[in-house]
Please model this.
Amino acid sequence: MQIWTYAGKTGEAITITVLADRPGSSTDPNEWVQNELLDTLLAVYQPDGTFLAQNDDLNEVLSPSGSVTDTNSQLSNLVLPVDGDYRIEVSSAYGGQTSGAYTLLIEPASMATPSASS
Model:
């Protein structure tokens, strides 16, 4: 797990996206570890440590391989309730068994665009 922080403002709406360099999207989950594919999990905590939101898969649509079609993660239009430093956790959603490089994007909600399936 990696931890990031974001200095947020009360009422600010943001979109947080995690895009794996090698996502497990549309690939048999049994091959993820062997092929070094990442299934991301995104969690956000408020400045006081209280859980705020979480997302596992950007797209919950199942593919014929048994995987979802997009294993990246995204929280769209997340409205921050208070001023302060928010903790953003990025980890493996597949029981901690997958790992790999990823890009973390934090954008104003009005500017964010959905990611394409990889």
